[in-house]
Amino acid sequence: MSVAVAKRTPDGQSAPAAEHRVWGRLIAMLGSRGWILLVLFLVLLVAASIVPDVFAPHDHEAQNLRARLLGPGESSPDGLHLLGTDSLGRDLFSRMVVGTRLTLFIAVTATLIGAGVGVLFGLLGGYFGGRTDRLLMRLGEAQTAMPMFLVAILLLSLLGPSVFILLVVLPCLVWPIFARVVRAEALRLREETFIEASIATGCSTSTILGRHLLPNVAPRILVLCVVEIGHVMLSEAGLSFLGVGVQPPDTTWGLLISEGRPLLAVAWWLTILPGVLLGISVLVLNLLGRYWEARSGAAG
Amino acid sequence: MSLPLLEVDDLHVTFNTASGPVHAVDGVSFTMESGDSLGVVGESGSGKSVTARALLRLFAITDDVRIAGSVRFDGVDLLRIDERKLRDVRGGQIGMIFQDPLTSLNPLMAVGEQIAESLRLHRGMGRSEAAAEAVELLGRVGIADPERRATELPNSFSGGMRQRVMISLAIACRPRLLIADEPTTALDVTVQAEILLLLDELRRSEQMALMLITHDFGVVAATCEDVQVMYAGRLVEKASMVHLFDRANHPYTEGLLRLVPRFEDAHTGRLHPIAGQPPITGGGGSSCAFAPRCSHAFDRCRSEVPPEVAVGPQHLSACWLAAERAKDATEAGRPWKRDP
Amino acid sequence: MSAAAARAVLEVSDAVVEFDTDGGRITAVDGVSLQLSTGETLGLVGESGCGKSTLARAILQLVPMQQGSVRLEDTDLGSLSPRELRRMRHRIQMVFQDPRGSLDPRMSVTALIGEPLRVHGIGDRASRAREVAEAMELVGLPALVADRLPSELSGGQQQRVGIARAIVTDPAVLVCDEPVSALDVSIQAQIINVLDELRDTLNLAMLFIAHDLSVVRHLSDRVAVMYLGQFVETGTASEVFTEPRHPYTQGLITSVPRADTESAARLQTARRLVLGELPSLLDPPSGCRYRTRCPYATDRCADVEPPPDLLDGHHAVRCHHHRAITAGEHQPSSKSMRG
């Protein structure tokens, strides 16, 4: 009577198992202290964006036509160019350091805006249900169904590229994700007795949403934020790469990749190295988010 | 001479958890003969359910569990046979029913089919023979119109009827031992009464032994002749039910018996709760696990594990004061009963 | 009767609660009236699906009532605006069945107990802290758990927090919905004693809902037995428990397994008093709700719904035949003689 054996599965989604397994293995590789390395990397990024001068060995805008397209490790009269120089002889490492600020700023701000909208809609939809919920979720679905990346390109090429427009377009890409996750949590929590208990206590709706629902979904939101910052970073790089994102003289990693692309055959480092930095950053954010999620899931 | 049907000797079950090992069962020994009815009483965490599951090694794959000791069923040590042979015992010679029948039934399979499947598997019946027997079994556990209901899915049955289905599944292969783990805890009292009577009748008609695990002495009183009380993974008292009512010896048993508001009494002041709470980490210490909650505890209770002492015919109590208390009980009558 | 009604802090008249389910509309509470006075406990017993929890939620206005009224200290709760109702809530509080689930997992013990005070703007920060400490002491929570989260408490402590939160605003009425059924037996007695003491010290009117008859018997002054949305028998605890008149009440009481030597024999009797299965609320029986399971049922029971028959005092029974049954003049019909 094998049916009698209680099969306890760890609660949670059985979702894309293969993808989960890859992340699971990566997280397992981190061990119990690996996350410190990840955090250290992020701290470096944040520090570079606050005080780039400390990290950048050269002036990122200083051109030197005699030191054009130096490979990584070569030196010019100005000194060592750790990651080489571009076609105008500007130090690539310094440009990457300086580009960190705008890259992070756009990614974080856009994610927070998207999170704000998504959390609000998710909470309202999940808690009230019914018509409010249907309306908000249809909105999210409609937007998910649209090729938002193309819409973003269209919008940016019509209105002209600017950081401001990026901060309008990029949140649109992420809010439905936040709304979906928060709504699912709110739906679950709404059925918990402690919500009924707070109604019986005399809490107003805003108190219930703000004091009881929000703090209980906050950990998931934070984790999601970390992961989504990476994704937004990637989207911004994509838009900048296509020339509809950040415009020179401002610079981001995406723009650096874009600028280096025509020279890929002669100066691979101009494209590959910013790309590697972007890739590592996205990976680190993803890993960290999932690591925290796994940890809190095990604890709760 | 004959071997007992079930002989559990020095059973230990230890779970390795993130917060260290938990000794859920800590040296439990008992025997059961065919036709015996044994109630195992304890609170959550006392190890009563784990004991039953350990007999059949029914643990989730994710549990990191270590079982020691021996469980001889019909002369065979169930802890030492391989998984394939154990599967024949599970649901074959030993049937088991749980508190929540719904989780033990396949929700997508008609109940008659589930019973028939078990019959084909364990009793080697043919398809049509098994189907007929399934209907017969459903009728025997008191399900009206069994032909029709055999074709229905589990969730079209009420809680009590589902437990009947579960019982018919458990007795399908004429087990020699039926283990019922809190079979009526989730049920209403009137339904509980019917299920308890059904279990009692089946035990007599099928000549099987019944091990009933519960937290409710009333349930034991209605269905079992013998009772053993568990606390923190150990047996603290073992006696015939009648004897236990008259001569509860262990302070924990006494506490359990008197803390339930007795139905016959009107409001007679406050209840007598047992202070504190049961340990959650199981047993395994070198003291009486009940000592922190016991008003009779003295130094020895905190430094040495009390052995099981015979305090009457078929009556064991694991308490350093057992002999003394047995003498008092003889003089004073029912110690747990409030003053007349 | 009139004197009791005048002092009643809670008065429910003819409450009807209907729900839409997948199978259709059901009437979970069907014309229930009750009164509760200060310092008095009304025990509400019945089996799952009888509507007792729904009635509690309707009294607290947590589910809408289709008919009837709830008067709390002479205010009709149904007539209040949502804001006025929220202000009224500190006068009637509830203790829930699931001690852990009813506490916000991210709030500390003091924050949980203090929340009703904060929400209702009672006192200032310092006085609230005092009231919380006082409530903790009343329910027997040690001060050292003040900053803990619910998950760090035992089940008994969690329920003590739930009770402290319910009494901290000094309510007139306390509704307890199965407050001990999720707890271990040795903890149940502790919690029952806490409720028992609070009722006396705070002079609470208490509605105590449970399926465990011995617990209800122990705590209640009066008892109402509920079946399929209706009260079938009401009276003082000793009337209902020692001289039950309704066949269902008799069956219910006999079904409780007691720890004595006649336990099995008593269950045999119970089996003859409660027949078959609980009918669906989607298709409730005509006339007397209990007739499909009653060994004494006659044609009249199917045709006419029995009105409450008031015996001496408060003892009311909803049965056509209870007087004849008590007098021994009405025997069970043959269908009760099965198996």
Helix content of chain B: 25-40%
Roughly how many Å is the radius of gyration of chain B?
Answer: 21 Å
Largest interface, C-beta within 8 A:
B-C, 50 and 47 residues
Oligomeric organization of the protein chains: heterotrimer
Kindly list the characteristics that best describe this protein.
heterotrimer; B: 340 residues; alpha/beta; four-stranded antiparallel beta sheet; 13 helices; 22% strand; globular; disordered C terminus; C: 339 residues; Rossmann fold; 2 domains; eight-stranded mixed beta sheet; 12 strands; disordered N terminus
Kindly describe this structure.
The complex is a heterotrimer of chains A (300), B (340) and C (339). By secondary structure, chain A is mainly α. Chain A has eleven helices and two strands. A two-stranded antiparallel ribbon of chain A has the order 1-2. In chain A, a hairpin with a 2-residue loop joins β1 and β2. In chain A, α7 (163-190) packs antiparallel against α9. Chain A is elongated and about 75 Å long. Chain B is an alpha/beta fold and 340 residues long. Chain B has a domain at 246-267 and 285-340. An eight-stranded mixed sheet of chain B has the order 6-7-8-3-9-10-12-11, sandwiched between helices. In chain B, β4 and β5 form a beta hairpin. In chain B, α4 (111-123) crosses α5, α5 crosses α7 (159-171) and α7 (159-171) runs parallel beside α8 (189-206). The longest helix of chain B has 18 residues, at 189-206. With 339 residues, chain C is α/β, with parallel strands linked by helices. Chain C folds into two domains: 8-227, P-loop containing nucleotide triphosphate hydrolases (Rossmann fold), CATH 3.40.50; 243-326, no CATH class. Chain C has helices spanning 2-7, 52-59, 82-88, 109-119, 125-138, 155-167, 185-202, 213-219, 237-242, 247-255, 263-273, 299-303, 322-326, and strands at residues 8-21, 24-37, 41-45, 67-72, 75-76, 92-95, 173-177, 205-209, 222-227, 230-236, 309-310, 316-317. In chain C, the strands form two sheets. An eight-stranded mixed sheet of chain C has the order 6-7-8-3-9-10-12-11, sandwiched between helices. A four-stranded antiparallel sheet of chain C has the order 2-1-4-5. In chain C, β11 (309-310) and β12 (316-317) form a beta hairpin. The model of chain C is unreliable at 1-6 (pLDDT under 50). At the B-C interface, α7, α8, α9, α10 and α11 of B face α7, α8, α9, α10 and α11 of C.
